[in-house]
Design goal:
heterodimer, A: 167 residues, alpha+beta, Glutaredoxin, 2 domains, four-stranded mixed β-sheet, 4 strands, B: 309 residues, Cathepsin B, Chain A, six-stranded antiparallel β-sheet, two-stranded antiparallel ribbon, 9 helices, 12 strands, 18% strand
């Protein structure tokens, strides 16, 4: 056993690996550098955790499901209003995408309804969409409070398009 | 409470269950004829049906079974199969449309369709009433208390008047909306329509004939008896097989095992694989000339849903 192999892990014919350059005697500067890097990473993560956005992308960008959305903006209901003749396959897929999105987004629920459902709640949602220049098939975002309609967009065909309703 | 005139069968564990599908009268035949047909515009091609029924190499219906097994009903000795199948269809539509889960009373639906006697009903009558009268939830608020509709009544006279009155009001919250009949012009179109609906997760109510040998599955498949149709059930999903018939629809029967008393008497092994069993399209088609197959595409919103306030 040598002083570099105190536990005898390496046979005599195989030299023990050379110890890294950070020895107690001469590595103090590098240790401080590592601490500094770790501190920087921690600050970066903290900033993102509390709503910061370093990507500078728009709300529709990126595949991450909650990178660009903030809790207050996405709570409430995503109401898909489809046309009388049932959901097309693409539209049904989009509702599935929205449900996946809602499942990882606290406080968000999805509904899909027929545009000829004459219930007052559906009529109100369609009337609101019209004020945004949108007619069914479309997507309306409504908050948790009564009458808190927030935005409406044409029926989205991707998650990127869906996220535009939160603008 | 039950005093049934409908056929009684015995499951392998000895539990007795009933059916309850009657042949439609002339008036009911006219109702059937008047229903709109599932349009060819809704048909999906083979590739799309397969894509929606097989995800990541797994048949979707197996996942759907797990998700829905807690809603498997047990109609027991009551002849309320039509109430059960249609109520389960409404529950599935609410799931599909993102609405909160609510247990629907199949007895309430049955009581509107049977003339006040436990002698079964015609499928079309219950199907139509789902759109015209709606159907009540099991749990109802009366005088500030939650009361539960019994799951063994067939006549409105058997229910407390105050509870029934509120049930009639609540039923307006649970109305069918886009309901169609499956095409009967050809077997190919029938298969395509049913497969397209199930691929979209739209429930399908249908009739079949239960025989003494129908109490057990054979290799996972339902064994169908010979006859004009004496039982109705819900196809909730399907297994993709391709070829001419495209799918094997997955039957959600109403013979247990019920896992929650809201959906019927609990206990016992129930029927099939946790209440489910696969059909061939040929067996599903067998009784469709006598009792149309119905595709439920959507329900109306619940006006009390906060999403629509």
């Amino acid at each position: 056993m040598s002083s570099r192999d105190p536990l005898g892990l390496f046979p005599a014919s195989q030299p023990a690996p050379t110890q890294a350059a950070t020895t107690s005697g001469g590595g103090g500067g590098l240790s401080w550098a590592i601490v500094g890097v770790l501190l920087g990473i921690a600050l970066l993560l903290g900033y993102q955790r509390f709503g910061g956005d370093f990507s500078h992308g728009d709300d529709g960008g990126g595949g991450d499901k909650h990178e660009h959305v903030q809790p207050g903006k996405v709570e409430g209901y995503l109401i898909f209003i489809h046309e009388r003749q049932t959901l097309s396959a693409d539209e049904a897929d989009m509702v599935d995408v929205a449900e996946d999105f809602a499942s990882v987004t606290s406080g968000l629920e999805v509904r899909s309804v027929d545009d000829e459902d004459d219930s007052p709640g559906v009529v109100a949602a369609i009337d609101f969409a019209k004020t945004k220049g949108v007619v069914p098939p479309c997507l309306v975002h409504k908050g948790k409070q009564a009458g808190d309609f927030r935005n409406a967009v044409a029926f989205p065909h991707s998650l990127d398009e869906l996220k535009k309703v939160f603008k | 409470m039950a005093d049934t005139d409908t056929e009684i069968f015995k499951l392998p564990d000895g539990v007795q269950v009933s059916t309850g599908l009657n042949m439609p009268t002339d008036a009911e035949q006219l109702l059937m004829a008047a229903l709109p047909e599932y349009s060819q515009e809704f048909y999906l091609d083979d590739k799309e049906i397969q894509r929606r029924l097989v995800r990541n190499g797994t048949q979707v219906y197996l996942e759907k079974r797990k998700k829905r097994s807690h809603r498997v009903r047990n109609q027991g000795r009551l002849g309320k199969c039509n109430g059960s199948s249609n109520s389960s269809g409404v529950e599935q539509l609410r799931e599909m449309q993102g609405m909160p889960e609510v247990a629907i009373s199949d007895c309430y639906a049955y009581s509107l369709a049977n003339g006040g006697q436990d002698r079964g009903s015609a499928l079309i009558t219950t199907f139509t009433q789902m759109q015209e009268a709606g159907t009540a939830p099991m749990e109802i608020q009366v005088g500030g208390m939650t009361k539960v509709l019994p799951n063994d009544f067939y006549s409105r006279r058997q229910v407390d008047a105050a509870l029934l009155k509120q049930a009639d009001i609540e039923a307006k919250r649970f109305m069918g909306w886009e309901f169609y009949k499956a095409p009967m012009d050809s077997f190919a179109n029938y298969c395509r329509a049913v497969a397209s609906a199930l691929a979209r997760d739209q429930p399908v109510v249908f009739a079949w004939h239960v025989g003494d040998n129908s109490m057990r599955l054979r290799n996972g498949m339902v064994v169908v008896g010979r006859g004009p149709g004496n039982h109705s059930n819900l196809m909730h999903s399907a297994k993709w097989i391709g070829g001419k018939t495209l799918i094997q629809p997955d039957d959600q029967n109403s013979w247990g095992p019920a896992k929650n008393a809201l959906w019927g008497p609990t206990g016992g092994a129930g029927w099939g694989e946790d209440g489910f069993g696969l059909f061939t399209m040929e067996d599903m088609w067998a009784c469709a000339r006598n009792h149309c197959t119905y595709i439920m595409a959507s329900v109306k919103i619940d006006p009390s849903d906060p999403a629509f306030q």
